[in-house]
Amino acid sequence: MSLLLVAHGTRKQRGVSLIGDIAAQVSTALGRPVRVAFVDVLGPTPAELLGATRHEPTVLVPAFLARGYHVSSDIPAHVAASGHDDVLVTRALGPDPALVRVLVDRLIESGWRPNDSVILAAAGTSDPAAMRDLHTTATWLSATIGARVELAFAATGEPRIADAVAGLRRPGKRVVVASYLLSEGLFQDRLRDSGADVVTDPLGTHPGVARLIANRFQRAGFDTAAEIAFQQRTFEYAPAGMQFRR
Length: 246
Fold this sequence. Notes:
This protein has helices at about 15-30, 45-50, 70-80, 95-110, 130-145, 160-170, 185-190, 205-220, 225-235, and strands at about 1-5, 35-40, 60, 85-90, 115-125, 150-155, 175-180, 200, 240-245.
């Protein structure tokens, strides 16, 4: 079985290298190679890598922190274009309690203090389901740190991160932006330029991210027949040869 990790893509070499580092961590944990493809900006694309291994069953993990266009539309289109007829696609990485634990670790290592105002900053989306995912993560993070966490966006959606920071600015109170991004790139740059007192690093190569991705790959190998039967009942719109996993 082939393992494929699919990310967004960035022009920043540091961000590309970071995705490669995550894949290497997962590969070490699973004891088998994990290939990487990108849906935007650079290649190889999922269609290219899947087309080159049509003879081999493949598990594809979307390295996205919520549902959205890339997960619901781009990846299915790439699978269909590849001609590969045995691809199991897992759900996106978030929302997941494991990511909330990573966010808390990033806050702690950044010097966050309990009386700080906290903003969860995502890339953003126009997809209602993805927006619900992001609000779920913000709610879980609020419950975990015991304080309200606002949600803001670097690209699509309101409020934009700089506006959210300005709106929470109070004398004697710091504003901390918790980056809900996977890697370095344009959006992380926007968070750092938002005027916040503290901006956490992307989730990146935190061990919790690699463990979550490894778990997605591992779970995809269990009870496949039952899973396919479930998905045939629930995801009738899926292209031929493609199954979705909860």
